[in-house]
């Protein structure tokens, strides 16, 4: 059961939540479980909805626009390393329950899976906040079964939808090892627009950040 608050203190509360990076052994166990039915040499599809749209970090044979049903893109995950710190966490995208999401799918050559997937797991599963699942996605060229990282609502880093003003305040304040949280949100929105994907709520948030990038005062 989620007990996170949507009050103005949510940003402060986020900094006090339990935080632990997964060990290499935990990541390997998760990867092995996800690939337990994979046949060596078989091509795989990977679904991207956030930074994977503009920075996949792997070579791919094919890229298609795709629709995932049953989940939607949301800034619902506290980030304490990549786009924030334990003391001042940022927010990154997760696939939360309900609705649908327009993104992209990448086809990776089967021979590259052992090379690319450990790095993908280190990137996406550093804290175990996502649940790797194989889910059917719709594309113009037909359905594909793709690896999708959906939000684990039982993870302490999950946060329910916040009022827009509070969400903007958190994003503007935070920065991590990959840079400001603002850049992450804006780059994702720009990449989706470039791909012809319309996300009205994200566009509204990104345009506010693009027009007014001034950091808000602490607690603002």
TrEMBL record:
Protein name: glutathione-specific gamma-glutamylcyclotransferase
A GO cellular component annotation in the UniProt record: cytoplasm
GO term, biological process aspect, one: glutathione catabolic process
The keyword Lyase appears for this protein: yes
E.C. number(s) listed in UniProt: 4.3.2.7
Natural source organism: Achromobacter pestifer
Keyword Transferase in record: yes
One annotated GO molecular function: transferase activity
Record keywords: Lyase, Transferase
């Amino acid at each position: 059961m989620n007990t996170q608050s949507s009050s103005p203190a949510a940003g402060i509360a986020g900094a006090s939540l339990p935080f632990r990076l997964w060990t290499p052994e935990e990541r390997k166990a998760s990867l092995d479980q996800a690939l337990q039915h994979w046949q060596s040499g078989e091509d795989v599809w990977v679904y991207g909805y956030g930074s994977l749209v503009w920075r996949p970090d792997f070579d791919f044979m094919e890229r298609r626009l795709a629709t995932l049903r049953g989940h939607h893109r949301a800034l619902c995950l506290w980030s304490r390393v990549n786009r924030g710190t334990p003391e001042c966490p940022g927010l990154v995208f997760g696939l939360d329950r309900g609705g649908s999401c327009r993104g992209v799918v990448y086809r990776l050559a089967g021979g590259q899976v052992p090379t690319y997937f450990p790095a993908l797991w280190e990137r996406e599963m550093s804290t175990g906040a996502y649940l790797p699942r194989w889910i059917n996605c719709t594309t113009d060229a037909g359905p594909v079964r793709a690896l999708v990282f959906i939000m684990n609502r039982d993870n302490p880093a999950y946060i329910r939808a916040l009022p827009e003003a509070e969400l903007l305040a958190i994003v503007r304040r935070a920065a991590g090892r990959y840079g400001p949280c603002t850049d992450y949100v804006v780059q994702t929105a720009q990449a989706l627009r470039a791909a012809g994907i319309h996300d009205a709520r994200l566009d509204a948030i990104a345009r506010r950040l693009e027009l007014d990038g001034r950091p808000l005062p602490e607690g603002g």
